[in-house]
Amino acid sequence: MGFAKRIRLRKRVGIKRVEVPMNQFLSGRLFDRTIHFLEQSLNLRGARQGILANNIANAETPDYSAKDLPFQKIMRQKMGDPSTVSVQKTHPHHFPEPGSAPGKESGLPWSVETDSSGVTIDQEMTKLAENNLQYQSAVQALTKKLETIKYVISDGGR
User: Fold this and answer.
1) Rounded CA gap, 125 and 72, in Å?
2) Kind of pairing between the strands at 16-21 and 6-13
């Protein structure tokens, strides 16, 4: 990366100067991890929407197996496994932790899981509606985040 594309940030670490590339500066300061997370979420939700719609379209196709995108697993692979607080199960009737339910998983990102039991339209419509709501929620969160950045840039200094 050339000198023209870098921004010099002077950090007092003894007498050393630290030079940070522009893309790292912007992604680390202005556009934090939240925006990157929401971008990945929207991409995966869009891909999952297409897969679920394809399942519904092929519901009457003989020997067609329903497919799905393992959203949680792919997000963990793309974003790194965050350090989360583990909730202790204190009663046998509590729900399991998200992601702890047994199921088929593939080791490759963007791989599609196949359910050999066929397609149940009600289940696929439920998954489609849930995915759509989560997509809309991510869009709203991204919009709010960008509005906050816009406010800070335009009105924050007044």
Assistant:
1) 19
2) antiparallel
How many CA atoms, within 13 angstroms, populate the side-chain half-sphere of residue 146? 10
pTM for the whole thing?
0.59
What are 28-32's contacts with CB under 8 Å, separation 24+?
Answer: 30/149, 31/149
Which token pair is 134?
A: 């989560």
Question: What are the E-state strand segments in the chain?
Answer: 6-13, 16-21, 66-68, 113-115
Using one digit for the tens of pLDDT, what is the confidence trace for 108-152? 445 566 666 667 889 999 999 999 999 999 999 999 998 988 888
Which residue(s) pair with 21 in the sheet?
Answer: 6
Compute CA 131 distance to the chain's CA centroid, rounded to the nearest angstrom.
Answer: 12
Domain ranges within the chain, ordered by starting residue: 32-78+111-152
